[in-house]
Give the backbone structure.
Amino acid sequence: MQAKFDSITALTDEFAAQHLNDEYATLMHQATAALCRKRPSPLNSGRDRSWACGISHAIGMVNFLFDPSQSPHVSATDLYAWFGVSNSTGQGKSKQVRDILDMGQLDPEWCLPSLLGDNPLAWMISVNGMILDARSAPPEVQEQLAAAGIIPYVPETIGDTVTSAPPRPKLPKRVIERSGEALYILEVDLVDGPITESFAQTNPRVMRIVLIKGEQSLQDLHQILFEAFDREEAHMYEFAVGGTGPDDPDCQRYGLTASGLEYDGDVAQTTINDLNLEEGEIFGYTFDFGDNWWHVLEVKNVRKKAPKGQEYPKITSREGQSPPQYADFD
């Protein structure tokens, strides 16, 4: 497998040298090595260039590479183009890499070292069934956890304050007063996920228009999106609102707090009005943390009052077919 490793990493090294940094190059080496060690190795089937693209995309997804607010930043489309593969091939190989290596967003094992300080999953530990932040543990406990590889390192302390990376300031946003009857018109684009090449060719855009009232919850929005994209099996999901884009790590994140993950709000308790959205604003929705179906929602219009006699939320327009939830890439 040495020749295969050398061929793939030569491509990822060149890509990292042109567009990324040494941290990315190292993680892509580690991912390639992990795939080489599998028996049988999946790298024996398929083009080296396709695997290099998939590995780069997978590591990029973990580290928000496709978020314009990040540095370095590369769009997924530009990444596919650099490696000379189609969008669907790049997405398919990326999904294979993520599935084989059990890789997900914010996965501490595949997180850039420079981002670990801001990665909440890197510091979560279970104590008697309770999820705690290891940064609040006594220093001697932190040292034991770091020595055992449970946390990445012992965080620095200044006085009584535990520090990692300094948080980025969040700008205050004016509060918009709207009634519960306000009607939001949302344009929802599916922008990434495990889509086959043949599907992408016949469905260059997959978009839905959804109407939802201000008094309804993010859980209601999730349920109508589940229906809009013809999903069959439930999975974890989250919404990311604010910041400079839908994938900004400093967004306000809303999910199922019962999952034990740390969120700014619970989807069942957060209404659409609570998000303080304005016309033209975009926010993100991720469904299934394994396959990572990414959607971008844009607020096209906000009306003062929803027409009576209609049920909300509802789907009013569709463009493109819904991709199968579990695509067959064979």
